[in-house]
Amino acid sequence: MRLFVLICFIIPLAACLPKGNDGLERSPLVIERLDGSTESFEVELVTKPHEFAQGLMNKEHMAQNHGMLFYFGNSAERRFWMKNTLIPLDVIFTDRRGIITHIHENAQPHDLTGISSMGNAFTALEINGGLSQKLSIQKGDMLRHQAFGNLNIE
After folding, report:
1. Which of 49, 59, 79, 153 has its CA 20 to 30 A from that of 108?
2. How far is CA 15 from CA 12, 25, 47, 62, 107, in A?
3. How much is the pTM?
């Protein structure tokens, strides 16, 4: 069933999205805080194993309102590291509804220490390091994106 959803929803969605310089699909993502306020981002959607392995490695800069959304297609314990990553990142883990379950703030470039999702995660969003605190993004807030089926674009 999960594979069917992936094939019928995510893959056609990806075919319609604009591509970034590295060929990854770009799409809008909104973080909705518990108080109802929002922050908008443009994210690169990562869905394939070779894209997971590459992530944001070797990127020297990322605009403040950009990020990378890792869509795994299932919930499991996740681990990230910062090998060959040149910029500090916040890694935001969510459940399958898009609810933020854990935020690892300010992961440091080139650090090989594992970054854990601290439980099952359905997606992970990488944004610039320190941005979660600056924008008051916290556990319990919700990511709204077409991958969750909870973002209506008008």
Report:
1. 49
2. 5, 8, 12, 24, 31
3. 0.83
Question: CA-to-CA distance for 136 and 98, rounded, in angstroms?
Answer: 17
**Under 8 Å CB-to-CB from 50, ≥6 apart: which residues?**
none
* Residue 89 falls inside a structural domain: yes
- Least Cα distance to 44 among 74, 7, 12, 19 occurs for 19
d(CA 36, CA 44): 24
pLDDT (tens digit per residue) in 93-135: 999 999 999 999 999 999 999 999 999 999 999 999 999 999 9
CB distance 29 to 56 below 8 Å: no
Range of the domain at 26: 2-144
> How far is residue 94's CA from residue 96's CA, in Å, rounded to a whole number?
7
Residue range 80-86: mean pLDDT, rounded: 91
Q: CA distances (Å), 131 to each of 60, 105, 137, in order?
A: 17, 8, 8
DSSP code string of 116-150? EEEEEEEEEEEEETTHHHHTT--TT-EEE-TTTT-
Return the CATH number at 140: 2.60.120.1140
